[in-house]
Specification:
The protein is an alpha/beta fold and 503 residues long. The chain has 23 helices and seven strands. The strands form two sheets. A five-stranded mixed β-sheet has the order 4-3-5-7-6. A two-stranded antiparallel sheet has the order 1-2. The longest helix has 27 residues.
């Protein structure tokens, strides 16, 4: 049986094996990011909350504002906390390794979805390549569990949703699907919309299209709904203490998130509370590879023209509904569009549908040219990712001149990953900046992002520092150090500036 499964899914096994090798080869090259300490601490406090059966309530006082724990749940961080505790390895590098390995789940399920939809191994491989060459997915895979986890959980839900529409509806399957929808909504409250729409489409599918008995349809709806709500409450500690009005409070707080920052957009500074309506769709367009955008556009058109396409219409709802809500409600946003990276899940599947349906429509003699376009389209962002490594998430596409054309126009290293490379450069050249006592005193503008990488005799001391370095972000101070000695850069674009006081 194992041999048969391996033969059937051999390309998937090879992709996953190659990806795991790549992860183990590169995970230590990614720097600590802005929110990691809080994210890790969130998981630790949440684990203590559950382990003490709610007696340890430090989870609710960890963040200064309730919105920080109302809008996202800790289930992925709890699993990570269990693993790091069992391994006795709380290091930054181990954290990056664990959450990158979690993200392999998304790669597995995009392959399975593509294979189920198209029945073609070649299209499943191509669909997987499209996901892996999304720089904002791959770049955040190592450092950003809170925004990447909702993406791969959504892919699992899409896969199981398609199984439901295809007729798989035994009791255990319904329970699993309801639980996963609940976990997905707990991770990011904005994803709470996905289950009600699924329930509506499932109701239409069974009652009006398949003509099932109303008793059967209601039984399925009840099982799905009960386990969805149970999982949502179980994996969101706030709902355990506020079971009646908690969901309403979570939804309201998602709009008034308290983080107020200056946001750079097209060379202009805006407040994160007062962004133009096009902020989210614009960032999505200019940071997504053109091949994905093109196939996604084709997928939208061909789905709308497709008959008996209820599951595919559900995909369109998964993508377009939250985008519409953001445009209408103007919530607080910052850091490009990382809070909505989960939209890459339906976008990728819609793009696969576009690829599949286009191949079915065009004459066979044009297939070789079409595949040539696909190969070039995948190769271009892959080449950019190699050049940008390990800052893949700073990628911009050709519509704005690539990453090279975005300096001082858009947000680049907003996570601060380049502090690792900058600190390691100072470690190597520390004698150049050493004081009489033999120590090199430095002042990174964000201490915690440099701390894990300090060499002996390289000391953070704001008062004695002769070296200052910082990313190019408008809300961070510049203390007046005036001699630029080195820049961390990719594709000719500076990400971190190392300066001294004296020429």
């Amino acid at each position: 049986m194992i041999a048969r499964i391996f033969k059937q899914y051999r390309p998937l096994f090879l992709i996953v094996l190659g990806l795991i090798i790549l992860i183990f080869s590169t995970y230590s090259q990614y720097g600590k990011t802005w929110d990691e300490e809080d994210t890790i601490a969130m998981g630790d406090h949440a684990l203590s909350y559950y382990a003490s059966f709610g007696k340890d309530t430090s989870y609710f006082s960890f963040y200064p504002q309730p919105a920080f724990y109302l809008t996202r749940g800790p289930v992925i961080e709890i699993v990570r906390a269990l693993i790091t505790s069992a391994a006795h390895n709380p290091s930054t590098n181990f954290y990056h390794l664990i959450i990158a390995l979690f993200s392999v789940t998304g790669v597995i399920f995009i392959y399975l979805i593509a294979l189920d939809i198209t029945k073609k191994t070649s299209l499943a491989i191509t669909g997987t390549a499209l996901l892996l060459t999304l720089p904002r997915f791959y770049g955040d895979m190592f450092t950003n569990s809170k925004d990447i986890a909702p993406l791969y959980i959504m892919l699992i839900c899409i896969y199981l949703s398609f199984k439901f529409f295809a007729g798989k509806r035994n009791l255990w399957f319904l329970i699993l699907l309801g639980v996963l929808f609940g976990i997905k909504a707990s991770l990011r409250v904005v994803q709470i919309y996905a289950y009600p729409f699924f329930a509506l489409f499932a109701f239409i599918q069974e009652l009006w299209i398949e003509k099932k008995k109303i008793s059967t349809v209601l039984f399925h709806q009840i099982i799905l709904g009960v386990f969805y709500l149970l999982a949502l409450h179980l994996f969101q500690p706030y709902l355990l203490t506020h079971p009646i009005f908690g969901i309403k409070n979570m939804l309201l707080d998602s709009k008034k998130f308290p983080e107020v920052l200056p946001v750079l957009l097209n060379g202009k500074l805006y407040s994160s509370e007062a962004l133009p309506w096009f902020y989210l769709p614009f960032y999505m367009v200019v940071t997504t590879p053109l091949i994905m955008l093109g196939l996604f556009a084709l997928g939208n058109v061909l789905i709308l023209l497709k008959k008996n396409s209820l599951p595919y219409l559900y995909l369109l709802i998964l993508f377009w509904f939250p985008l519409f809500v953001v445009i209408v409600t103007h919530p607080t946003l910052y850091d490009a569009w990382r809070h909505f990276l989960f939209l890459y899940a339906p976008m990728s599947v819609i793009a696969i549908v576009g690829l599949w349906q286009t191949i079915l429509l065009i004459p066979k003699k044009l297939h070789v040219y079409f595949w040539g376009v696909i190969a070039i389209g995948i190769a271009l962002p892959l080449i950019s990712m190699i050049k940008l490594h390990p800052y893949e998430y700073t990628y911009f596409n050709e519509l704005v001149g690539g990453t090279r054309g975005t300096y001082n126009k858009y947000e680049l290293d907003y996570w601060g990953e380049s502090f690792k490379e900058a600190t390691e450069w100072i470690n190597i050249h520390q004698k150049q900046f050493a004081s009489k006592d033999g120590n090199t005193y430095i002042k990174p503008c964000v201490h915690m992002l440099a701390q894990p990488y300090l060499a002996p005799h390289v000391i953070i001391d704001d008062a004695l520092a002769t070296v200052y370095y910082c990313i190019n972000r408008p809300n961070l101070p510049n203390p007046g150090y005036n001699n630029l000695v080195h820049m961390i850069q990719r594709n000719g674009v500076p990400l971190n500036f190392i300066q001294t006081k004296y020429k």
